[in-house]
Every structure is written in structure tokens, then in C-alpha cells.
Amino acid sequence: RIEPASLAEQSGLSVERVRAALTRLGTAGRVGYDLADAAYFHRELPYDADRAERHNPRLVAARRLAGEGAVSLDGARATVVSGDRRYQVRESGSAFSCTCQWWADYRGRRGPCKHALAVRMVRRGATVAGGAR
Residue 32 pairs with which residues in a beta bridge? Predict the structure, then answer.
């Protein structure tokens, strides 16, 4: 069982940063989340960890948006241009909201939309497809 608060205290990182890292590790197949126990746990999946990322369409789309320079930051708000549309993403603490249809339908229950993921990547200076930062 992995406790984000305990891990944050031991590492000197914020709980939000630890949760973000656990999410990334989950995408890579190294950490799981048990809904019944509401707890993270260690795991190693028997396949290429990069495969999970390649098959996550929102993550792939977010990397593309960030790499294309589609994200404009303005404090706690950001604008993401996708196709002929502009989406407004707002950050409040570690939570995001977006004006896209995915957010309207799921409100984060199925994870962040590609726009919020792209904003997160740009805010953190993550390396994206094509080597852009």
C-alpha cells in the first residue's frame, strides 16, 4: 500500500506532486490503484511500459498539443487551441476544469481531458513529442 501523504512527508514533496507522480507511474504500469481500498499499490506489468502511454489517446493527443505550442498560459488559466476551437482550462489547486465536451460529460471522473493534460505538461516543462519543451 502506497500512502501519498506519507510519501510526500518522507520525500519533502507536496502531496499534489506525489499524486501526479503516482499517476505517471500508473500510466507506465508500475503503480495500480485499488478502488475498493482507495489506495495505490506497487505493480510491474509484464509488457513494455511505453506501450501503456502509446495506447492512451488522451495522453498522445495532449503531447501533440503541447508539442505544437497549442497551450497559452495566463496565471491559473490557460487557453488550448485544438483544431478550429479554443478551450479554456482552469487550475484550482491540483484540480483542473475545461470547457471541452469531455469535461462536460465526465467532470474528471475518467481522468483529465487532453487539454488539461497538455496544460499540465506545459506548466511542468515536460518534454513532449519532437523534443519541444
Answer: 41
Rounded to whole angstroms, the Cα distance separating 43 from 110 reads 21
Q: Which residues of 8-34 are buried (b: 16+ CB within 10 A; e: fewer)?
A: beeeeeeeebbbbbbbebebbbebeee
As a dihedral over the C-alpha atoms of residue 95, residue 101, residue 102, residue 105, rounded to 10 degrees, the angle is 90
Instruction: Report helix, strand or coil for 89.
Output: strand
Of 91, 63, 97, nearest in space to 77 by CA:
91
Q: Domain extents for the chain? A: 4-48, 56-131
Report residue 57 as a C-alpha cell. Answer: 489517446
pLDDT in tens, 12-47: 989 888 888 888 888 777 888 888 888 888 887 666
Answer whether 58's CB lies under 8 Å from 65's CB.
Answer: no
Q: What DSSP line would sit under 41-64, residue for residue?
A: EE---SS-HHHHHHT-HHHHHHHH
Question: Which pTM value belongs to this model?
Answer: 0.60
